[in-house]
Specification:
Length: about 130
């Protein structure tokens, strides 16, 4: 898995909103969430796509494991995560346990966490995007 990372600010709101929009939204994130997080602030955007076609659980473990190693994530005050999956390969309860374990491992009760999931009908692999703001 290759995780891309770059700095973002309020000029990237439209781009991030486009990334979190899906055809079949299961847990909603919207423009308001992104604006509240980034307006007048800077943060880091991390994204990865399961290009190797590994199973969902392995990809989620790799992504969240690498994300936890990032200083910006451990220190952030706001975190937005969007998970996009193909309709043909849904998340199972065991996969959701990995997501829940990540949130529990952050250990920062003051952190504002917003997350969402969407499915797309087109074939493709799972992708995850995280934005953290200090």
């Amino acid at each position: 898995m290759i995780m891309k990372e770059r700095r973002v600010n309020e000029s990237h709101i439209d781009e991030i909103v486009e990334l979190i929009q899906g055809e079949d939204i299961l847990l909603n994130l919207d423009r308001h969430d992104v604006e509240n997080m980034l307006m007048g602030k800077e943060g880091m955007l991390y994204e990865a796509c399961n290009e190797n076609g590994t199973d969902n659980a392995t990809f989620l473990k790799e992504f969240f494991g690498e994300l936890m190693q990032k200083d910006a994530v451990r220190k952030c005050k706001s975190l937005l995560i969007s998970i996009c999956m193909c309709m043909e390969v849904p998340l199972m309860m065991d996969d959701m346990d990995i997501v829940n374990d990540f949130f529990a491992s952050i250990g920062n009760d003051d952190m504002d966490i917003k997350w969402g999931m969407q499915r797309r009908s087109a074939e493709g692999n799972m992708s995850i995007m995280a934005v953290c703001v200090e």
